Amino acid sequence: MIGRYLIGLLLALFAGSSGDAQIILRNLVQNPSFEYTGKDTVRERPDESWTFKADTESVTGHATASRAIDGFRSFLIRAEDGRGYLESDPFDVKRFEWYLLSYGVCGDGKIQTEVRWWRDENDSLTLIDSEYLDIITASDNWSVPEFNVTAPRRASAASIRFTVFDGQAWIDDVRFR
Asked: pLDDT per residue over 37-83, tens digit each?
């Protein structure tokens, strides 16, 4: 919560300054609240901008309306015996730019958050680096962890990857600004 207030304060400060400094608060993540984009209400993928994978058949993941911090849905990963991976499609970033990553999480599992940095080479994206952030242990109430990251020199795109293990977690309202 403090991060959101800080951003508002910084915005107000820069709005009144005459310099060229800018703060861009546009969310770069597509479908950050996992809402369905079409008439199909049975699909497990809310749209084509997120991919779920699991390392065992006992791990499941799907969009659900059972809990949400924003909109009507969140993404639930059940990974008591194994790991579930939820990754956004890559989105454009600018090298050396500072970004704020936040998301809502609740449940009883652990979540490893990873920012994956990509480079556009010959019309194809190549993974150049992964930045692993603190492991979060979810709780029954929604929490909103925030992380500051800086795009590497060669990065032209990024993706967000959540790895859930040792329980279940609902993820919602993913923001990369």
From this structure: 655 554 545 556 899 999 999 999 998 888 999 888 899 999 999 99
Query: Residue 162 sits in a domain of what CATH number?
Result: 2.60.120.260
Radius of gyration from C-alpha coordinates of the chain: 17
What is the residue range of 118's domain?
A: 28-176
SS (H, E, C) 64-130: ECCCCCCCCCEEEEEEEEEEEEEEECCEECCCCCEEEEEEEEEECCEEEEEEEEEEEECCEEEEEEE
How many residues are present in the chain? 177
What is the tally of helices (H) and strands (E) in the chain? 1, 9
Q: Is 6 a domain residue?
A: no
pTM confidence score: 0.81
For residue 153, is it within any domain?
Answer: yes
The torsion angle over the Cα atoms of residues 46, 43, 48 and 76, rounded to 10 degrees, is 50
